[in-house]
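Try it yourself: sequence plus glycine, in.
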Amino acid sequence: MEEQAIILTHEPSTEIARLVSEATPDLVFLLTDETTERLCRPLLADCDALCDAVSIVIGATDVHKNLDTLADVWRQLGTGGGSRHSLMVCLGGGMVTDLGGFAASTFKRGIRYINVPTTLLAMVDAAVGGKTGINFNGLKNEIGVFRKSVAVVIDSRFLRTLDAPNLCSGYAEMIKHGLISHEAHWAELLRFDLSQPDYAELQRLVAQSIGVKEHIVEVDPLEHGIRKALNVGHTVGHAFESLALAESRPVLHGYAVAWGMVSELYLSCTKVGFPKDKMRQTVDYIRTHYGTFVFDCDHYERLYDYMTHDKKNVGGIVNFTLLADIGDIRLDQTATKEEIFAMLDFFRETMN
Ligand code: GLY
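Structure, out:
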């Protein structure tokens, strides 16, 4: 897959201008959603390269990450005069970078795009690594392609536009990066006070976190092997997310992943020997900052059903990425229904 430059900067306008001038596109499109148009675009007001950009604004939040919005973006690229030599700048959270990346990757068989993530989740995860897509048929990210943006321009000052739950949501993916990398990084992540964030320290941790993901994606861009490490917490997390959505009590993705990590660390302890003290420390941090997900044993069958339908499975067998220790990754693990139910018991006993 093509290279993707990761640019950490406090001069995003200058960096975007440089990237646009290097790309020499015939036309620049700027994709935002209603929230980032209002809160984040003003931070790029001094960017000459975006002055003449054709603006496309879509609805905010995941409910708009669908075929209708995608078709609308394709249409506006067409009516706005887009050609194969055009360039799109995606300014927003994971919904904008995922959908925008997919629109750009498919319009005229693919135009170049630049991601400017504005949420913590998008900075450390969604905008990096070339996964693009939309939700379809009730399933998250069901349709999409792997195709990297030309660059990801990250200015941590955008984080100040985020509310506390969205900051916590992105931080869950950073905890995941700590768990799959090395002990020192994991330990410093658990020392960070999420309720009173020190933004300078957060910026340093974000840079390290992106490094963890970048390294993995470089080795395995198409998720044939080690990229599955990035799925820690996601098998159970997606099941919690789906149940919450079906019961009209949606939760932010990172919260579901945090709760998923609690569950999958329990499985890691029981099945591959993850140290109990490190599980306890991680679980305590998550309980303190993310609270819990409420469900009872009547939900177990349904949660199991969601897990068996996860797109990472092969032949309907539930696939987990587990850890034998911090950074000691065990891919393609599975568990019986009884083990999964015991894991759900553990979650309720420990988190409630
Ligand atoms: N969000 C996980 C990945 O990019 O592979």
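One thing you can check immediately is this: The first strand starts at residue 5 and ends at 8.
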